[in-house]
Description:
The structure is a single chain. By secondary structure, the chain is mainly alpha-helical. Helix content is 62%, strand content 5%. It contains 56 helices and 16 strands. A hairpin with a 2-residue loop joins strand 14 (1142-1145) and strand 15.
Amino acid sequence: MAVSYDIEGTTYSFPDGTTREEAVERIKNLKVQKESKSTKDPEYEGVGVELAEGIVSGGSKIVQGLAELGVGAIDLIADTDYSKKVTKGFEDFREQAGLDPAGFVGKGAEVLTQFAVPGLGAAGVVSKLSKAPGLITKAGQVLAAGAADAAVSTDDITSIGDLVGGGITETDQRNELSGREEAKRRLLNKLKIGTEAGVITATAPAALSLALTGTSKVVAPIASPVAKGAKALGEKTSNIIKALDEKRLDEGAESLNYLQRGFTTVLSKFRYRGFLSDDIADQRLILPGEVDAQMDQAYRILGNLDTNITKGLKDFAKNLGSKGRGQDTRLLREEVFTSMQQILTSPLAQNLSKADLKKLYKKQIKQLNDKGVRAGLDAAIDDMVDMRTQIDDLSKDIMKSDYFTSLEKISDAANIEQTIGGSLKQEIINNLGSYMRTKYKVFEDATFTASKDSLNKAAIEFQKDPKNLMKELVLMANDKRINPNMNPDDYLASLGIVTDQGRRTFAATGPTKEQGLKAAENFFNRFKSAANQKRAKRTETLEGVPIDRLNTNLFKDDNKIETLYQKELLGEINTPKEAFLNTIADLSEFKAVDNYFSKIRELADSNSGLGKYFKNTAEMTEQEIKNLQDQGYKMLGQNVGELISTLKGITGKDPDKVAEIVDNLTRSVKNDSFGSLNGYMVPKDIYNSLTRKVLGDEDFLNNPIRSAYSNFLRAKGTVQYTKTVLSPPTQIRNFVSASAFAASQGNIGKGANLAESIGFVFNDIAKKGSESVAKELQELKRLGILGTQAEIRELQDLISKGFGGTEGGTKFFQKLRDVVPGGKQLGKANKFMQDLYQGGDNVWKIYNYKFEVSKLEKALKNADQATVDKFLGGKTINEMAASIVRDTVPNYNKVPEIVKGLRKLPVGNFISFPAEILRTGANTIARGIDELASDIPEIQRIGLRRISGMTGTSVIAPQALSSFAHSVSGVSEEETNAFRRSFGAPWERNARLIPVGKYVDENGETKIQYVNYSYSNPYEYFDKMASAALNKFEESKRLGLPATGIARSVALESFSEFIEPFTRESIITSKLRDVLPTGKDKDMRFTTDDPVLRAVGELVGGRGGRTLSGSYVYRDNDSAGMTLFKSFAHIAEGIVPPFIPVDVKGGLPTPSPVGRAIVNELGYNETFGINDKDRLGRETQLNEQIFNTLTGFKTIDANLNDLVGYKGHDFKAANAKAVASFTSLADDYNLTSKQIVDAYRKSMEDKFNVHNDFRLTVLDAKKLGLDETQINSILKKKNVPGFKETVLGYFKPFQISNRLKKVLIDNDNYDAYLEALPEILSIQREFRSKDFPADTTQDVDLLRSPIGKAVVGTGKAVGETIGSAMRGEIPLIPEAGAAEVTPNVVAPPVNVPPPSPASSVGEINPLLVPNPTTRATFGSQ
């Protein structure tokens, strides 16, 4: 029946029982719905944008549909209302994200994404997996597509039945339902949508085939609008982020809500630029390149210098009739360089042309007495002129710098005649022709002290130099630390100095040696104290230290040391080559940083870009400055406005005093590290992006903990360095794998010459080549392309800086090089290996750069100038190409500080590289989309080529290589997967293993050879994450996990692979943990699915002489001395470079594979006492080792028989551990029956999973070619208990032993045990009848338990069938007409007499509990 109500003049019918109030409310809701449906569609934003929004919106609806399905099931069971909340949440998300696809394109893309992708994907999977006849497969495809589309459909979907106004698929659109009824409505609608999808799948292929004809001809026209849409969407997102950043800078971080503030903060930490703009950050990025370009020129000059001096000395020795180079070339060379230093710093060379400079040097050389010295310098005179010219040219550039201009502006603003920078400029002018930076050991070496002999020598020289002697004694008299109480004149009198009316003189006897000694000691202590204060300042936690500092001390006259004896006392480093390099480095850095600050200052003065946030305080009032401070602004350097006000106040002062007053007032501003930015105020976020906190020096006495950790980090870097830079195979692999960076950009074919790029790099390493080559290399460095290899730069920073900001590690290795015999030669070899490793990266960067230049030139050749200018955005083609290379090829200079900081953790190897792979991979796709969205057809093709290159390199090529290897190696994909999951190393679980072959050796043992391609694929990071997600997704589905469980499992596995490079143990950490005593983490040695737990486990405690893989370093019965020796050898093995043919196994040195192969080949085994086989019985072949070395690909030869034995050992240990988790409980007191039952069930579950996983391992071994007889034999030799029943496919619960019962009695737990016994027996019966999971798909991975992963392997055909037969549920011999089952097993005896029945629970013997089906009695395990 129905009930009717008249509402607002219209009669409506409602279901019986509906009240008038309910009726009114329903009509009101219907009107609201009608009005909302009649509102205008969202604004149409063009084909490209709507297409992109439709795709993203459709993707979000896939997730929504799955979520609605999951919570709908909950609503159906629990009568809850979660579905509506899920729907509302996703609708709000799309609204906030601006995802409002409109029009045919937008809505069409949304629907296609939501339904076509899942539906066709599901049908495709069925087609691939199915081996059934075509019609059956087709039916499966239809069902799969329907199910998929039903799952992803959302509640707002309109069916075809809705459109035609009827039919069985017309959906129920009522919205007044709730709880269980609402869930039924939604699920029924999903079923209707799925039905329609199945019908479409059955009929669409023919139409689809017709529609796709000729697709290749229209790729570009279609792809470009899609790219434009994607670009617009990206720009939309970028603009949202930019708006948040600008609001934060304009109004402060507090103006954002909590989420926005957190988002912008985190994002800034993961951007190398922080809150700086791209143009300013790029200028900072090329600072090292500008310095490197000047240093490259300097090294070339010195290379020529050494060559010419050597030639000159050879000719000199030859003319004298001597053999070789003379009797003492080393001493002669020292004299040559000493004289060179004196000539290069002579004040006579000021403002001379190169020709005149050469004449002067010739004249000065002729005045030298030693003919050998003259010969050496004559040969190198042109190089000396080049050295002097490079220094003077840089000095002249600095006089024109923005820094000096800013100082003059202060003079103008203060209206003073005395120019602030005038004295500094004059100092530079005075030093032209003679300036060269001098360094002293007192400043460079914290441990340097003046010896007694050097002090006595200086005392004599001070005695001969009354002026400097008097100066030093007066300084002592005025120093309150030396003379705290006496009047200075009285103190001087005590030293023998006479003061008369302010005039001080020595006594009649003149200066004494005692006075000279005091002066020498004070002179040294003054400079030593200044050096210590400088170091101590670095130990403080300082804010506001510029990341890039302008070194304004280059030309200061303070503490200038003029006399030779004073320089010697302070430990002058007077080698002209080192002084020259230091000078060029300091001057070029000054110039580069000044250019960087100048660019920012220009933006600030024009109030453009980020410059609008730089406020010049030079003419601000105190109140204006305070207002900025209240807004969160911070001052860069000194308060220039305050200084100008003070300078204005000196007008009318004594003119003779003005210069001194100005100098004193402006001393701090002249010394400020911010240069021309001095006195500008910026928001705190920009300030933090320009500065950093300095944690300080690693001085052991100041901070022993920090010093120790710094040394540990240096050891970490050194170990990684030896295993990469000093490893020939890794060198080659570095070069070969870097080729992927060219392929990923589509840079293959004509466009660049690889041989030319290699030639450039070798010229760079040797500092040779033509002038044009040298200039081009310098230009490449200025553009920030070369010298940015992520791994080696990370290692250099680790070794040199440790935990702090100083370069103590570098100095240590320099000292080591000087002390160790042959250290300098080793140092040169090490430098060559380092240059070679960097060169392997540089080759491909040069190649990529030239290819990008070629592509751009070709693409823009026929474009009009306006189009070219718009595309290049103010850059030249070379600058654009360099920018592309910096953005798409790993570059250490672009690594964010937060990632660089992670290198200071004890975990992670080469953290910068995976971070850069993520950055450059994303940039490559983004760049390709931008290019594809261009209006220039040739640029579109570059974009398509780039995206295709990235897809081919990271996705298609690895898969194609795998397929090819499977087709030619004789190892199928199924076999490879079986090996990887059951016998591969832990780090290979998601790796791409390329099979080489499989064979049976002369001992009848099966071996499989493979290459881990992930080692050589720089994009393996993406490959492994994708593999991890897909594998876990399939596994989770097969295990029947709910949608939320699948999502969590996939997310954890992907996240685990994502963080693995950042959390894996570093080499040195692993070595140390291997030898340290076992800590609380002994149970965390096994794999866990939780990446957080895994990371924590890796940071806690030692492993007590076991490696991560379980191998022994030392054993418990080793003596203390042997344990120490093995531990030391194990750690040392991590430091020994791979080219030294020694490994450490089991804590003892043993020949490396290369070393053993060479000895075998030469037949010197007896001579050196080296066996032809290693301890595992493997004979290494020299040809294989040569192949590994020359290709960088290491072929791994795995003995399957041995691996089965190792897995048997793991099974034995894991089985014992599962049982021990229960038996250890018996040691506790006052147990309850529940505790005993819970512990027993948990132990039984663990044991079941261990047995199931081992059964999977056995099945995989069979897939790889081992038969059951071989497997049984291997396991029997390894004394593995309980494996037979596991192989047969049934599970035997463990029984409680008499010994354990005795422990329970002793601990007063027996009554609780008897109370728990019935449930324990029930658990035993439950697990006896429990089947192992079926292997119907032959995909063993899907059946693995989430715990017990130390062992693996299973199968339905053997496992479940035999297990059921053992219980008498099915006959071993199949019935007539049944499918034949012929398992290769032997059934255990079943006719075991049952035990005597028990009269009461208390008399039951737990050791004799029978199997309820077979009546078989089993042992304790």
